Amino acid sequence: MRSKRIYRIAKTFLNYGLDDLIPARWLPWYLRFGRHMMFWWPNKHKEKPAGERLRLALESLGPVWVKFGQMLSTRRDLLPPDIALELAYLQDRVAPFDGHAAQRIIEKSLDIEHIGELFQDFAVKPLASASIAQVHTAKLKQKDGELKDIVIKVIRPDIRETINADLELMESLAAVLARHLPDGRRLKPKEVVREYRKTLLDELDLLREAANAIQLKRNFEDSELLYIPTVYSDLSRKNVMVMERIDGIPVSEVDMLKARGVDMKKLAERGVEVFFTQVFRDSFFHADMHPGNIFVAKDDPTYPRYIGIDFGIVGTLNREDKRYLAENFLAFFNRDYRKVAELHVDSGWVPRETNIEEFESAIRTVCEPIFEKPLAEISFGHVLVNLFNTARRFQMEVQPQLVLLQKTLLYIEGLGRQLYPELDLWKTAKPFLERWMNEQLGWRAVVRSVKENAPYWAEKLPELPNLLYDGLRSQQRIQAQLERHRIEQLMTQQQAATSQFWTILTASGVVSSVWLISQGTAAWALGSGILTVMVGLKAWRARPQIKIKE
Length: 550
Description:
Layout: H1 2-15, H2 29-37, H3 50-61, H4 63-73, H5 81-87, H6 99-109, E1 119-120, E2 128-129, E3 133-141, E4 147-155, H7 159-180, H8 184-187, H9 189-203, H10 206-219, E5 226-227, E6 240-244, E7 248-250, H11 254-259, H12 264-282, E8 284-286, E9 294-297, E10 306-308, E11 314-316, H13 319-333, H14 337-346, H15 356-371, H16 380-392, H17 400-419, H18 425-441, H19 443-460, H20 464-518, H21 522-541
Parallel strand pairs: 5-10
Antiparallel strand pairs: 1-3, 2-3, 3-4, 4-6, 7-9, 8-11, 9-10
């Protein structure tokens, strides 16, 4: 099985001429010779650009490789812009598997004899199908007799074995590239595949996705910006998830939205607000917000609300990352490149020994030409990409949370400008960031910190007298130990000095005795020897006896 898969991958790569993407000087002579010998696998798509050939090859290899290409399209630090742009067009279109097989998986996972025990009107034909799972519609039977429209997401059978096999091949290929390509250290192929493995395996666990959905729904409870469908966690398993069915318009259907009178400017601006709210308020953001996962509610076109689905990939940021990112964005708004450079060093994203002046100059060189355009024409996402690319020249390590953030920001900005081409993301984002920074650094931050820590302080307050008493007792013991240690050191030093004195006298006596013997004065030599022995005994007795206790 493995050898057949390797054969197919090699044939596909060569038939699409992907070997042309690697400069000949990077390939050992034996690989170039081997390629010429495989004349029965010619490049059949010479007329197509390299990016298109790569996209078509990945689509022909199947879902695991399609998703890998989608992930690579967000890593614009690794690929030329034209190839990254072409990979962004990869579509996750996969033929559905048998609906009756999906029904059996649901029955087995939920431990029921027949699907009719819990659901009514189960649609054997799937509503949608993708590489990892497919979705079926049904009605959930409520205890009060009502029926609730739901969708059931089912992981494809045996998909894990296929994914594991392809991931092993990817890791082997990445190891070869890392070893043989001169640019392998910068491209980090093994790290890229490792990152992809984690992302893909997370998507296979629908319990994780259900938990992500519940968290997002709680964050936007009663929100006018974003609606998250209800997940029925008691009916969800690792390979099955039951969720409320939503009624919305796909956000990519711009003509339909306009026909319904949706305020497109407000819709685009609300998309930006949803993103920044998730990132800076909640530190928990939907990291797969491409148009296929976003809908617009039909209720009020003048105040449009988003509906999100598919929560397999989420990103998180810690408090330090949030603050540094917000300060970075604001420094960019103000073209304060010195501040941007210092923030990267302070955050630990680049080494401490980085030359700030050189780093500042590099950032200015990249960004100043961008700012020559009107703000409305500048891509916020691409500025972030350029910043991270510049930082990596100064040994900035790949930050997974920033990669997801970069990918999501590119999605949001592209979506916003598709809905409303005049969208000025800078103008929309800056007030939000300034308000958030004021809340983090001003008196509101102090009040919030007191509120957050009040329960902890209230719990510890009754223990304070005992803690204070124990602390004072402990301090007294430490002081007593230090005093004993000092006295023992002084005594040891005094004994060492005394022992050294008598040792020197003993050595002098030995020298004198030997000299007297050499002069033939036996009586004097005997007396000197006896005296030397007595002095030596005194030196031995005076040696240090106290061992310092730690």
